[in-house]
Design goal:
Shape: globular
CATH architecture of the largest domain: 3-Layer(aba) Sandwich
Number of domains: 3
Distance between the termini: 43 Å
Helix content: 25-40%
Largest sheet: 5 strands, mixed, barrel
Length: 333
């Protein structure tokens, strides 16, 4: 069905209504900021972000729906902030506390957009199906190395592999285990099948990364059996209603630790890195960096390349070097 074309008068009327709404919203925001000025400053944690709306938890575990002063940065889930209460349910964030870590992705203009802050580990989720991508896995690992957050590699849906197939599949990741990455299998369908992951999530602030279809949402539901109750509580406290399910949220795990679920992670991609930063992202390269014959060695075809020599001796996996070269071509564009 063809869309009905609006008359000029109708367009003007719609614009006028939208402008009134913007003015009303700006007025409410200014009033909130003004009312907050006389109240004491407190420290809190951002546990929800949806658009410009923040859910900030105070020291007693109470949640406040907050607005943000301009020019303080971009608060995200996991951030510690300074805020001032307006009333018993709302407040204003006035400053960002220093971050120990931040996970970002480039937006369409190439600028870094924070997704989550103060994370202590990245959980990279793979599965037998869809077929794991070593190239994508290495992008996640480079990100972890670059921002200084320890990564875990969790092989989900391991129950899909029977008999010797499970052992054979796990052997594909020996190159990662040999350079110090933690690799383990999990399954929500096996008794105690999630125990290895639950143990590693304790006392940590974690975020799950992985391509579509590996079961991240199912894992989150399994790790948070009371998620619907928790979502309802957060919805009521922040006034987000149905939007709570599409908000970035920091959940407290019943067995201990925190798990950040951010919609922005679903479209996560590697930020632009220099060749030197990319080299540092491959931890097994580090003993050989600076030993190549040429200082600007691309580690591809040059004679006297220490990285190529290490690969030939079996000290660097050929697939990892291939992925490095592929990523370096992208970063050089």
């Amino acid at each position: 069905m063809a869309r009905r074309r609006l008359t000029k008068q109708q367009k003007n009327r719609i614009q006028a209504i939208q402008e009134k709404r913007r003015i009303r919203l700006d007025s409410k925001a200014r009033q909130s900021l003004s009312e907050a000025d006389d109240n004491p400053s407190l420290e809190g944690r951002v546990v929800i972000r949806h658009g410009a709306t923040l859910g900030v938890m105070d020291g007693q575990g109470k949640l406040f729906r907050c607005q943000t002063r301009q020019h303080i940065g971009h608060p995200v889930c996991g951030d510690w902030v300074i805020w001032q209460p307006v009333d018993e349910t709302t407040g204003v964030v006035t400053a960002l506390q220093p971050r120990s870590s931040v996970l970002s992705r480039p937006d369409y203009s190439g600028r870094h957009k924070p997704l989550a802050a103060n994370i202590t580990q990245l959980v990279i989720v793979l599965a037998p199906k869809p077929e794991p991508s070593g190239y994508l896995l290495d992008q996640y690992l480079v990100t972890a190395e670059t921002i200084g957050i320890p990564p875990l590699i969790a092989i989900n849906k391991i129950d899909l592999l029977e008999g010797g197939l499970e052992h054979e599949f796990m052997q594909r990741f020996e190159a990662y285990s040999s350079i110090g990455y933690s690799v383990f299998g999990i399954s929500a369908k096996r008794e105690h099948g999630l125990d290895p992951l639950i143990e590693r999530l304790k006392d940590e602030t974690s975020i799950l990364l992985g391509q579509s279809g590996v079961g991240k949402s199912s894992l989150i539901n399994a790790l948070l059996p009371s998620m619907q109750v928790e979502t309802g509580r957060l919805s009521q406290a922040t006034g987000l209603g149905r939007h709570t399910t599409s908000a970035a949220t920091c959940y407290t795990l019943p067995q201990g630790g925190e798990l950040i679920d951010s919609p922005g992670v679903r479209s996560f991609r590697l930020t632009d890195l220099s060749r030197q930063e990319l080299e540092q992202g491959f931890r097994e390269f580090q003993p050989f960096l600076g030993q190549c014959r040429f200082h600007n060695c691309s580690h591809d075809h040059e004679p006297g390349c220490a990285i190529q020599a290490a690969m030939e001796r079996g000290e660097i996996a050929a697939q990892r070097l291939e992925n490095f070269l592929r990523l370096s071509q992208v970063s050089d564009r």
